[in-house]
Amino acid sequence: MTTLTALPGGTWTLGDRTVTRFGYGAMQLAGPGVVGPPADPDGALAVLRAAVDAGITHVDTSDAYGPRVTNALIRQALHPYPASLVVATKVGATRDAQGGWPTARRPQDLRRQVQDNLDGLGVEQLDLVNLRMGDARGPQPGPVTEALETLAELQQEGRVRHVGLSNVTAEQVAEARSVVPVVCVQNMYNLAVRHDDDLVDDLARDGIAYVPFFPLGGFTPLQSSALSAVADRLGVTTMAVALAWLLQRSPNILLIPGTSSVTHLRENIAGAATELSEEDLADLDAIAG
Ligand SMILES: NC(=O)c1ccc[n+]([C@@H]2O[C@H](COP(=O)([O-])OP(=O)(O)OC[C@H]3O[C@@H](n4cnc5c(N)ncnc54)[C@H](OP(=O)(O)O)[C@@H]3O)[C@@H](O)[C@H]2O)c1
């Protein structure tokens, strides 16, 4: 078993929990379109166990993945959970029969989703609940106070330990922080999508984690001649460069790359340790313009 410090990036403090900056995102363990079970359930369980065996202590999920599929896999693979493991989940959307992600943020919706996550993961308290505002296309402006008041109540009731945000604007982050302590923001961000550059830096100054989703491009792998050139020069994969860049970008960035392959998981852990020079960073900065 690898020790915590052996993972690239070291650790970060999320509220009162310490997590490895190299984490794991479970979304793509569900079936196509994040609906239904995986084609290879045993393979999915093996990836989750390999992640924890490698020392990863931050796993990202949602009851909406499947729905219920990734939570059930996490429970089957890892329950009873190691004390060091932080499982982060999300509320604010459910799934419909067409595989859509309808918004569900009324107090009763959020309470139901928290309960579904508690039941699915088999725990009395959720380590971290992100309130999802916009969707995978980006944030949508709008008030966050009522939803966060519900999560603050659930926190006081002991069902939620820490609160985070997902798909939010800087204004929504500021509004949220006036209601409840926020430990992380999970938005889309990678080498090619850098709308949140300022937000990453602002959150770093305030000790709040930034957790980029689609760190490898998500359903459309990152592709760029500049990225390939840097990867070739260093003799590593483009995925390695993309992950190493995020770790070097700011100390508050936590990685949750997804994979359904133990081989890819191990490649990504090794690759994220790649050291990028000033020249590499300048070439990579040019990708987003
Ligand atoms: N808050 C939100 O709204 C939101 C939205 C989307 C995602 N998320 C979270 O963010 C996490 C990360 O996003 P993601 O998993 O969708 O995208 P990602 O991490 O950017 O990319 C995952 C994809 O990259 C492939 N991949 C990974 N390592 C590879 C390697 N070494 N070689 C070749 N291909 C490789 C995977 O395929 P293989 O399976 O073949 O390895 C998978 O298709 C999700 O798991 C989820 O927890 C949150």
Automatic annotation (TrEMBL):
Domain (NADP-dependent oxidoreductase) ranges: 23-287
CDD domains listed in its UniProt record: AKR_AKR13B1
Keyword Cytoplasm part of the UniProt annotation: no
Keywords: Oxidoreductase
Molecular function as annotated in GO: oxidoreductase activity
InterPro entries according to UniProt: Aldo-Keto_reductase, NAD(P)_OxRdtase_dom_sf, NADP_OxRdtase_dom
Gene Ontology CC entries for this record: cytoplasm
Top-level taxon of origin: Bacteria
A family per Pfam: Aldo_ket_red
Protein's UniProt keywords contain Oxidoreductase: yes
PANTHER family per UniProt: AFLATOXIN B1 ALDEHYDE REDUCTASE, ALDO-KETO REDUCTASE YAKC [NADP(+)]
Protein name per its UniProtKB record: Oxidoreductase
Source organism of the structure: Cellulomonas oligotrophica
